[in-house]
Design brief:
By secondary structure, this protein is α+β, with helices and mostly antiparallel strands. It has helices spanning 2-16, 20-49, 69-97, 100-113, and strands spanning 117-123, 132-135, 150-153, 156-164, 169-173, 181-187, 191-200, 211-217, 240-243, 255-262, 272-278, 288-291. It has two domains: 69-171 and 283-291, Rod shape-determining protein MreC, domain 1 (Thrombin, subunit H), CATH 2.40.10; 181-278, Thrombin, subunit H (Beta Barrel). α3 runs antiparallel to α4.
Length: 297
């Protein structure tokens, strides 16, 4: 027993000495194998759900009846068409309402965001459910997909690609406690206010996805307006948070979260802290996501 325990400890020690690039490669290989098993399980569930005797025992296997692949493709094509229509409306709004310099920047960004890659979520580790997931596209999707490519669900931010394998990639989710996203408040009529950072909370995977916001203020003027002090209503419950673009990782304007609570500001503090919930509607149960080109690509 002691000899076996010693061997285990020795192997764990050796694993800690493996370079990060090599360990990521090993994880990628493991996710490929496990992802295939996950997909096989989903296929089996779909097969069982369409058996003639399924109607008599609908909950026996704990599965629900699903549409076939053709229905899924049709639905995704419809979503794609709707997204493109929304982009066209946004472009028209920019051309009519914004100044020439701002108009050119946002119009160019919209053109870039029209180029997106549809990907299927193939695996999630229960112990890190709120931190990462794996998708079924890899190096073959370059240059559209690369490290630091934003991942979205509709117009809602999901995370960022932090590892690209040969046939699969890992997405770091915005609910990861180590993930910092630069955001700002967006209100109606194009009003942009407080700026800050949101990150995930260390909660069990079965809990609701939550975000913690820190450093929210409007101490410095920018292209959207003059600086405002903390006594102004620069942030409140129900405010919509979008990516500010200041971190150089995510483009401006992606939906991130909705403010649910403003923490009491302690005397001497120069910013607000808050709690928020992600706007991505299926963050805990994603099956499909879209990958955008990385900034600077």
């Amino acid at each position: 027993m002691q000899f076996s325990l010693f061997n285990l400890l020795f192997l764990l020690f050796l694993w800690t000495q493996v370079p990060k690039v090599k360990s990521d490669s090993v994880r990628g290989w493991a996710m490929t194998a496990l992802g295939s098993s996950w997909q096989w399980g989903e296929g089996l569930s779909t097969y069982l759900a369409h058996r003639p005797w399924y109607g008599a025992y609908p909950n026996f296997f704990g599965i629900s009846k699903q549409g076939n692949n053709e229905d899924l493709v049709a639905e995704l094509r419809l979503q794609n068409q709707m997204l493109r229509a929304q982009l066209e409306l946004a472009r028209e709004w920019i051309l009519q309402e914004k100044g020439a310099e701002r108009r050119g920047q946002l119009d160019e960004r919209l053109d870039k965001q029209e180029q997106f890659l549809l990907a299927k979520v193939i695996y999630r580790v229960p112990s890190s459910w709120n931190q990462s997931c794996w998708i079924d596209v890899g190096e073959e999707a370059a240059p559209l997909l690369s490290r630091n490519s934003p991942v979205v669900y509709g117009n809602a931010l999901v995370g960022v690609v932090d590892f690209v394998g040969k046939r699969q990639s890992r997405v770091r989710l915005i609910t990861d406690p180590g993930m910092n996203v630069s955001v700002r408040v967006e209100r109606e009529n194009g009003l942009y206010l407080a700026k800050g950072i949101v990150r995930g909370l260390a909660v069990p995977f079965w809990s609701s996805s939550l975000l913690k916001g820190v450093g929210f203020n409007y101490s410095y003027a920018d292209s959207f307006g003059a600086a405002q002090d903390l006594e102004s209503v620069i942030i409140q419950e129900g405010d919509h948070l979008i990516t500010s673009g200041f971190d150089g990782l995510f483009p401006f304007g992606l939906s991130v979260a909705t403010v649910t609570k403003i923490d009491p500001r302690l005397e001497g503090n120069f910013s607000y802290s808050l709690s928020a919930i992600p706007t991505a509607p299926a963050l805990n149960d994603m099956h499909w996501v879209s990958v955008l080109p990385a900034s600077g690509e």
